[in-house]
Design the sequence.
């Protein structure tokens, strides 16, 4: 854990000609050090960076994703319509191309390098200061024009050390571009021993990590230890396997090329209904405006009424539904195309054809009148309030309620949630992937004592709404069967609805991850673990998904079949760590090699690709870290 706040203030006050940042390290530093604690970075600010968040950019560094470190934040509104000018063809092409271009994030192009002598000077001047030290690392980004081609300098300190001014120093050099097959373990050992000198003893255990790209979005990291005498880059059968998958969310545009697009559109519809409710409760006229639920065509009121009449009054021969669980993607298609047999699901689909608030309210009123005065053949059985209302009127226990305000949309929203939950549950269970327990997922919400102003506003219905849960209790006496003059149907909780949207969005992103895993790996034995790990995470807010570029899924895999998939693949990255020690100090050398440069190329035009006969080349970096014991 770093603690450099005081040091950061000192840097800003003493060295005003330099630019500093106290934050989590850039991707290239965390890749080399495998440490994600906050650091102080000295750099030259680049004011020419275009921070266009609409670009489809994916960070492909083998290590962690800092885009996923942000906490949940909510975005007001429901961005259901994509305003991007990117076509489907351009999108898919750009995803394929840009997934393999940059190892750095767009934000990191704002960090320009300083001259190496200037960077050394600021670190040495800090060492000469008499000040209270902190705990952590200071890094300086260098231009690499010196003879050693230095790109990074490091100075680490430990406040708990007996020697206040005892520092650990580090340096990162760019070695050049070499053919993958031209790099050998004896060559790396010799380089390390030359740096260590004769007075230090080489640790026989060497740590090796190699990355393999199965597709632009999926990377597998293998890590193992080998002995110096017999060390090679051949994969050990007992290697630890870690899989990283960057699913391209692309600011919500991912659904355009997805097999599960239909279900994301259903979720978008629920978000729009929620917005309608919020607008009406806030007395905004837009809540009553023409609606666009994305249904397949909008019909006039008489057509919808006739459809509703047929659903309730026409006998439906229900055939048992059988699913062929051949694959997840096949199950997605089957659930999407299934014939609806549940009465409330069929009513929900019919009600979404209404083109306006008035038509929706009139159609629900018509359903209530049918329930009271007609012979209903198909009786609702699911547990939504809408179904319970209809059942109560069929049994002649309740008078026809008068709907006001947002109540028509509230009934519609509850039915929509029920249908989409059933769809997702069916996909996961029938494909044999996982049993979704939505009751537990929805209970994971942290209760907030501050109530929404929309849920506890000044509406005359507020006090009575508190008792609405008592309306559907089973009758236990003759008196309770007396017809009521009116009924309250409003039970909207803004926070609860928001959390359900977030959870369902999380379930959908999980489904997208599984579809991608199935198309590339097709190892069903790992799907259950993927579901458990992903659903244990705190979900993004629904609105935040429209501000994300990628979603990272990363987990350890105990699966021998994955090793077989990389047997004939060249590695796309490698990290080899060697150490030597004596009584006074310890030297660690990290040889890091990547098929792509890890530093923004615009700052290092002199590191151009050199001629090589090998088809597979590595950009090679060496990181030496000297620590006093």
Sequence:
């Amino acid at each position: 854990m770093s603690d450099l706040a005081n040091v950061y203030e000192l840097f800003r006050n003493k060295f005003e000609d330099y630019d500093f940042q106290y934050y989590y390290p850039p991707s290239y530093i965390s890749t080399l050090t495998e440490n994600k604690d906050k650091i102080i970075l000295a750099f030259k600010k680049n004011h020419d960076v275009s921070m266009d968040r609409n670009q489809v950019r994916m960070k492909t560094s083998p290590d962690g994703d800092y885009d996923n470190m942000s906490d949940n934040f909510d975005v007001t509104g429901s961005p259901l319509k994509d305003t991007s000018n990117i076509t489907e063809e351009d999108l898919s092409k750009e995803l394929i191309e840009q997934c393999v271009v940059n190892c750095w994030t767009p934000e990191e192009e704002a960090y320009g390098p300083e001259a190496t002598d200037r960077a050394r000077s600021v670190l040495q001047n800090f060492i000469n200061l008499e000040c209270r030290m902190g705990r952590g690392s200071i890094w300086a980004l260098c231009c690499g024009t010196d003879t050693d081609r230095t790109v990074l300098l490091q100075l680490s300190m430990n406040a708990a050390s007996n020697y206040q001014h005892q520092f650990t120093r580090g340096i990162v050099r760019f070695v050049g571009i070499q053919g993958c097959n031209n790099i050998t373990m004896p060559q790396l050992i010799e380089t390390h021993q030359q740096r260590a000198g004769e007075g230090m003893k080489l640790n026989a255990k060497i740590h090796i990590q190699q990355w393999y790209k199965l597709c632009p979005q999926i990377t597998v990291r293998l890590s193992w230890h080998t002995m110096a005498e017999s060390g090679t880059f051949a994969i050990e059968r007992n290697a630890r396997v870690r899989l990283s998958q960057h699913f391209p969310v692309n600011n919500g545009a991912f659904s355009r090329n997805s097999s599960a697009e239909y279900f994301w559109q259903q979720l978008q519809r629920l978000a729009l209904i929620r917005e309608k409710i919020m607008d009406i409760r806030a007395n905004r006229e837009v809540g009553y405006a023409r609606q666009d639920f994305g249904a397949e065509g909008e019909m006039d009121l008489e057509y919808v009424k006739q459809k509703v009449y047929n659903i309730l009054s026409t006998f439906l021969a229900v055939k048992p539904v059988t699913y062929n669980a051949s694959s997840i993607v096949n199950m997605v298609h089957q659930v999407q195309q299934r014939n609806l047999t549940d009465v409330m699901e069929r009513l929900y689909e019919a009600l979404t054809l209404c083109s306006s608030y008035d038509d929706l309210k009139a159609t629900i009123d018509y359903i209530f009148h049918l329930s009271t005065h007609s012979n209903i053949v198909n009786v609702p059985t699911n547990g939504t309030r809408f179904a319970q209302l209809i059942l109560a009127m069929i049994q002649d226990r309740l008078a026809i309620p008068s709907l006001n305000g947002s109540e028509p949309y509230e009934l519609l929203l509850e039915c929509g949630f029920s249908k989409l939950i059933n769809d997702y549950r069916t996909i996961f269970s029938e494909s044999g992937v996982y049993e979704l327990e939505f009751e537990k997922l929805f209970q994971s919400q942290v209760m907030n004592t501050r109530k929404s102003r929309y849920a506890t506003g000044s509406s005359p219905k507020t006090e009575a709404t508190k008792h609405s849960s008592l309306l559907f209790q089973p009758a236990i006496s003759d008196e309770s069967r007396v017809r009521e003059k009116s009924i309250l149907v409003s039970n909207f909780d803004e926070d609860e609805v928001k959390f359900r949207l977030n959870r369902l969005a999380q379930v959908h992103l999980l489904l997208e991850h599984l579809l991608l895993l199935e198309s590339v790996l097709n190892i069903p034995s790992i799907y259950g673990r993927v579901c458990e790990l992903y659903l244990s995470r705190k979900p993004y807010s629904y609105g935040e998904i429209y501000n994300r570029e990628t979603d990272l899924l990363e987990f350890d895999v105990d699966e021998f079949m994955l090793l077989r998939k990389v047997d004939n693949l060249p590695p796309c990255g490698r990290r080899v760590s060697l150490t030597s020690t004596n009584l006074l100090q310890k030297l660690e050398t990290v040889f890091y090699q990547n098929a792509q440069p890890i530093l923004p190329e615009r700052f290092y035009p002199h590191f151009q690709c050199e001629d090589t006969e090998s088809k597979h080349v590595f950009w090679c970096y060496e990181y030496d870290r000297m620590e006093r014991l």
Summary: Residues 2-46+101-203+577-628 form one domain. Residues 262 and 299 are 20 Å apart (CA to CA). DSSP finds 17 helices and 14 strands in the chain.
